[in-house]
Structure formats: C-alpha cells, structure tokens
Amino acid sequence: EFWRRKLEEHQQRSAQLEKNFLAWEQRVEALHAQMVSLTKEYDEAKAAVEQMERDLALLRTNLESLRKQRVRIQQILVEPLRTVDRCTTCHLGIDKKDFDDPQVPLVFRYHPRYEELIATHPIERFGCTSCHRGQGRALGKDAAHGFQKHWEKPFLPKEYREAGCNDCHMEQMEIRGAPRLTAGKRLFQGLGCVGCHDAPGFDNHYKAGPSLEFVASKLTPEWAFAWLKDPHAFYPNTRMPQFFLSDEEAEAIVAFLFSASGLQVYPQPDLSQANPRRGKTLFDTVGCRGCHPLQDPPRLELTMPAAPASEPRPGDQPFVPDLSFVGTKVNPAWLYAWIRNPKHYNPQTRMPDLRLTPQEAADITVYLLQQRKADWQPSVPSLRLKDPEVIRRGEQLVRYYGCFGCHNIPGMEKEAKIGVDLSDWGYKDVHFLDFGAKVHEIPHTREAWLVAKLRDPRQFREGLRMPNFKLTEEEVHLIATAVLGFTKEWERLPAAYVVHLTPSQQEAERGRRLVWNRNCRGCHIIEGTGGFIYPNYEEGLQPPNLQSEGQRVSPDWLFRFLKDPTLGMGQQHSLRPWLTVRMPTFHLTDEETNQIIHYFAEVDREPLLALFRSPHVPNPHLAKTGKELFEVLQCMKCHPTGPVEVTAEGAGQLAPNLQLARERLQPEWVVEWLLDPQAFQPNTRMPTFFPQSEGQFISPFPNILGGDARKQAEALRDYIWTLALPAPETGMVAATSMKGATRSPMR
C-alpha cells in the first residue's frame, strides 16, 4: 500500500512537471515569435535607414553637381530640317518618361502620349517645331508660344495642334494619334469642299451631291425652287449649303437644270398590294438604317442610334440623305425604280443594291411615301421654265457658284474648280487674308480668320460666293484643323521624314477610303469603331464584326464575296441565312475589290504579295481526334454543319456555318482563333476553351494528344476541314498567312 501511494504521488508530480514544461515551452515559443517580429522590424528599419543614407548621399552628389552647373540654354539642332529648337531649355523632362509625377510642375513633365508620339518621333531627330510650329529659337513663353508678327509658322493653338501631323502624313486620310485631324479631313471630303478647292491628298473626282443629269425625272420644279432658297428649312441637318439666292436666281437655276436634264420615263408601279407595315419592317431590318437617318413619325432632329457599338464622331460616317420627309420630295415612280436599281438612275451612285424583290421594293416605297413634311408649304412663284433668257441666266449662276463641284450636271463635266487652291493654305501669309468688314473685330491670325470664314463665309463683305454649311462649333474647329494642315511641307521636307506609302500601302489606303465612302462602318465594326446599326438588332443577329478580317478569311473568297455577296445563291448566302440584315451588292470593280482586300490585310499586318500554295489537307488521324473534341465541346450547338432551317426562334444563338470554313477561312487563323478568340474580338460570344496560365494555353483534356492545346486546336481545325464540300481540283489556292508570312492572290 505504501509503495502504491508513493507511485501515485510520483505520477501526479510527473504530470504536473510535464504540464509546467509545456507551459514554459509555449512561453519560449511566444517569446521567440516576438523576438523574430521585433528583429524583422529592426531589420526593415535598418534597411530603410541604409537606403535613405544612400539616397541622401546621391542627393548630396546631385546637389553638389547642380551647384557647379550654370543655367544654360539647351537646344536641339536638327540639321536635315535646318531647325534649331530651344524648347527644352524650359521643358527639361519632355522626353524623360520618369517625369510623370503630378507634383512635378507641368512645364517640366514628359510629353503626353509618350509611347504614341515621342517614342516614334524622338526629339533629337524631329525637334519640337516640326510638329508644333512656333518660334523654336525663342526663350520666352510669349515669344515661343504666342503669335509673332511676320513669323511664318506660328505656334499651333491646342485645339489645332494635330494639323502639324499632316506635314508628313499627307497621303493618309486616317492618322493614328490624330483623331481630330482625321475627322476634319473626312468632313472636308464629305461636305464636298474638294468640289471647289484643291487640297493635298484628296480624290478630285469625288462628288458629294446627287447627280442632276436626270433631275426632271426625280423632282418637281416647285420643290427644287424651295430647296434652293433654303435647304435647311426642309432638312435642318442637310449637308447642302445655303447660297442665299433671290427668287429670280433660284428660278433661273431651276429653269437651267430642268432644261439640261435628260428624261428617264418610269412606268407607274403597281402599289395596290404594297403594305407600308411590311415596308417599315424591311426598312428597319435589311440594313437601310445603317446609312439613312429616318424619324418615324418624322421629327426635325437627325436620327442616330441610341447606343451604337461605338459612338459616331464627326466625320465617322459619309453623308447620306435623311429620308424623314422623302415622300414630300420625290415622285413615286422614281422612288420605286431607285430602290429596285439605284445604278439605273446614276451609275456612279454609292447606293448599293439590296437585291429587293418587286414586292419588297413596293412595300418600302409606300412606307417611305408616308414620310412627309405636312407643315412644309413654301411660297413658290409661277416659274418661267421655258424662257431662254431665264435659262441662260441660270447657266451663268450654276457656273458662278460651281454647282458642278458637287453634282453631275450635263455639259459641265470638265469645268474647273471655282475655289481658292488650299494646297499650302496652312502657311498662307496673314497679310493676304481679307478681313474686310471684320478688320477690327477678329484677331489677325490664320486660325481666327479661318474659323470666322467657316462659321459665316460671307461676313467679310458682300458678293462672296462661298455658301453657309451651318456647321456646328465642333465641325468648324475640326475642319479648321484639317485646313491648317494643308501645306506643301511634304514636298519641301527630306524624303526620310515624309511617310511615302508603298504601292501596297497605297492600295490599302484607297481601300480604307472606299470602306469609309461606302459607309461599311454603318453596319460593321472595323478597326474598333462602327456598328452604328447594332442597336436595331438583338445580339447574334447583328452584322458581323470585321475585326481581324485580314487574318481570318481567304483573299480569294473575300474577292468573290465582295463581288457577289450571295456567291451565286440568290437573295442570301448560306453563311448566315438567319440574318435579316443583308450584305448589299456594291457592284465594285475588280480594282476596288482588291483595294478593300489590301486594306483589311494592311490593318492586320498581313501584307499581300503574289505567292500561292497548296490547299491545306487535313490529317486523317488528327481529324478523327478533332471530331471527338468537336462533339465533347458541343460546337454544333451554335455552328451549323449543313443546310440550315431558318426560324426566328433561337436564330440569335447561331454562328457561321462550318461547312463553308474550308473555302472561306485561313487554316492558321482558325487555330489561333480556337486558342484565344478574345484576342481577336474582345467580348465575342465564342467560348474560350483553352485558358492561359503563365503564357501557356492549358487544355481541359490532359489525356488527348498529350494535353497539347495547340495540337488539339489543330485537330479541331482538321475535322472542320472535312465538313466542307469537295474542293475543285485546281491544285493551288491563293492565301495569306498568320504572323508575317506573305502569301496572297494574284489579281
């Protein structure tokens, strides 16, 4: 018993000692953690002190260096341009990216949009005044930035600063990094300024207005008279300017135009079975609203979509007629014939062919004839249309005002432009500008005179010919930017400074202008802008996004599609037969079609040369694996692989028919698209099957083809290629390729 009690006491004491030991051990660990924390704080504080000591030593060195330096003039000598710029005497950090701290005074900060502008235009090569103009040798702000009498190239004010870009980029209508200049140049062409004025880089054959060769078949003399008197009273947003004609002048011009007009006889269409409701549905769905504003019921404001894919800026869209009151304007027979075949009336028209059936054209005609301006009752005198003297006077007025600059008029096809040549207006001496009645009201600068002229062209004195376009303030300043950029510097500058387009780039530039002129952005997103018609359609039923079009499609297929969007199949091609919006037939020439193909290739950096290659032949083993992936990924839920039964329900979920992929798409592009569709079209509905991790594509199928995502994408591509109809045995196909290769069709 004694020993048993002793054992229990020892066990209890042992347990207590063990408990005490654990408590002390926990306390030691806590103290150790506290010591580590304190040591870390100490180490961090010590490192910070050491860094501050190094910074202090560096600052002392720099301060000592600054004490030894003297304030001196900094200057940039650009020998090829024969300029000396001392701007960096004040703007010390202009080319130093580190000088971006908001606390740094503005004058010392680096140049805005550094990567876009300075990185591509280093100041040691370009200086400052080659872009900004101004007195580069001056050292005072007022002398350098202000207007200096007799200085040929005064500093460009902020709102017109982009004008300087045109000195080197004259051949380009769209200049990246210069959106205001681009918009101004587009407005200059769209408003028809090139009809009266020569300007560098513009197509002299562009006619902004409709042809008047057969105007007597389209309009009544009374309507034409009222229109000439005040076009903005009928369409407040028309691009037709106001000439402030007297009744006698308007009468004479109408008499001449109707006497010179040919006569096209249009049989009265049978509109008895036409339905305006069907016409409205067609107008809203087939694509008319991509170009034409129309208020239904009519209102005075210009219609634009409420929320387009990208907001249209001035100059984004070429000018087309507002149809809100067209029923008051034209005769029914002409309207029906025009809708059916616009080129019958005017072979040069930009209006495309929507391949409407006679019934569809009749329905749209009766719908548009309902768009009338009921309160428009202008006072029109009895017109002397047959009086030879009145007709002769009208011909004189048409020549005086240069109406042929915007309109095709019989007998005036070779008339010279009536306006001043603007080729070097950006450097026009202020002393040659006539301030006339405003000599004491307007500052004597080019910019002030130009803005005043654009706001009210006839304010300087009576008898001036330039009409009033009723421009908005924004439009005035955009056009002023363009005109201030019209100089002959591109002729005077060394060739190394001027952007001279290669023959291929020239073709692409012509294609870019065609895309703008035909208003492709009204329906499609191109280079990140456009799709103005998108709000009229539910998602999935909108016109296709044309981002990466140059990489995506075969040039040979694109050539055939642009020439005939139905590809010989009639009303609608089987690529997306469920769309109600139609790709129009533009009746492009072979030359124009190739220019558009070059444009898309240039946008995607896919240069077109004259090489051919064998068509891609799918690997049978890869294609078999691709079929398994195709079924597992359920690609057929969106993509048809055969004939499609078009129904309204669920049509918005459909994607292009893959049976056409082999003839239409580039095989390399398909692989890249499958790997990363968002890289080509952000926000596309195409799912991403291969997410990226640390720059590598990760496959969700590790047991297929070794988990190689690219191999799996190639397998999918090869299976898709087996879905196509047998290709013609030509042996060779035209193509471009991804990532720098240069293969293209010969046309």
Structural class estimated from helices and strands? mainly alpha
Radius of gyration: 35 Å
Fraction of residues in helix: 25-40%
Total strands: the figure is 8
CATH architecture of the largest domain: Orthogonal Bundle
Q: Give start-end ranges of low-pLDDT stretches.
A: 297-308, 727-747
CATH superfamily caption of the largest domain:
Cytochrome c-like domain
Mean pLDDT value: 86
List the total number of helices: 27
Question: What is the spatial order of strands in the main beta sheet?
Answer: 1-2
Strand content: under 5%
- CATH T-level topology of the largest domain: Cytochrome Bc1 Complex, Chain D, domain 2
User: Cα distance, first to last residue?
Assistant: 116 Å
User: How many distinct domains?
Assistant: 6
According to CATH, what is the class of the largest domain? Mainly Alpha
| Overall 3D shape | extended
Major sheet attributes: 2 strands, antiparallel
Description:
By secondary structure, this protein is mainly α. The protein folds into 6 domains: 1-68; 76-155, no CATH class; 179-191 and 423-464 and 469-492, no CATH class; 215-405, Cytochrome Bc1 Complex, Chain D, domain 2 (Orthogonal Bundle); 503-608, Orthogonal Bundle (Cytochrome Bc1 Complex, Chain D, domain 2); 615-731, Immunoglobulin-like (Sandwich). It has 27 helices and 8 strands. The chain has helices spanning 2-68, 114-117, 123-126, 129-132, 141-145, 179-190, 221-229, 231-234, 247-260, 276-285, 326-329, 332-340, 342-345, 358-369, 388-401, 446-455, 473-484, 489-492, 503-517, 549-552, 555-563, 590-603, 620-632, 661-664, 667-675, 677-680, 709-722, and strands spanning 76-78, 83-85, 525-526, 529-530, 612-613, 692-693, 696-697, 733-734. The termini are far apart. The longest helix is centred in the first third of the chain and has 67 residues, at 2-68.
